[in-house]
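Hi there, hope your week has been kind to you so far. No rush at all, and the record is pasted right below.
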Amino acid sequence: MVEFKNVSMSYEKGHEVLKNISFKLEPGSMHFLTGPSGSGKTSLLKLIYLAQKPSYGEILMFNRDVAKVKREDLPALRRRIGVVFQDFRLLDHMSAVHNVALPLRIAGASFSEVSEHVEELLSWVGLGDKMNSNPTALSGGEKQRVAIARAVIRRPDIIVADEPTGNVDPKMAERLMYLFVELNKLGTTIVIATHDDALVAKVGAPRLHLIDGKLLQVKGSKEDISEFIENEGISR
């Protein structure tokens, strides 16, 4: 599904945000992306959902070298990736139900064809009474749930989520995480960036853990992460 080969990324000369990273995401796998603030999590997600290009190294998406994909072919590739942005990126002039339906409308479906499915999903995430509300009338947690519904509505091959439970209460966080787990069981590859160690431990999926731009792959053990930090001589 995704493979990084010796990937590094710099936003400015001499400052590497990501350092010589290599990993594979197998089809149908689920990973948490963890690490302290500033460790490079958002930058790694941007590379996965094709919003940035690496400074060095090779990225394969769906067995295609991203660097060799023609510009006109990129939109079709990106449509196979669902993204939950930390800042939501909803369209304020559209209601919640139309925001969620947008990926299906772009794919050519009429609203009448998809409205029932969209409404069912919004009800499931607790927004049955806010379907016709515009984002400006929603709380941060409500916007987050609309953003998640929009990312999953089309059942993409891979879903990338940046702190998807950061603006909701613990009960709703568990419910949303259950949605990701169920999608994963249906075959969707999932990558979730989070600071919530309790949710990571509860789900039990392996981690991609970043420290100072370096990557550690672990099965979720905080002890393994501490050992890596000590061995690498990295400050916390």
In short: The mean pLDDT is 88. Residues 1-80+158-236 form a domain with the Rossmann fold fold (CATH 3.40.50.300).
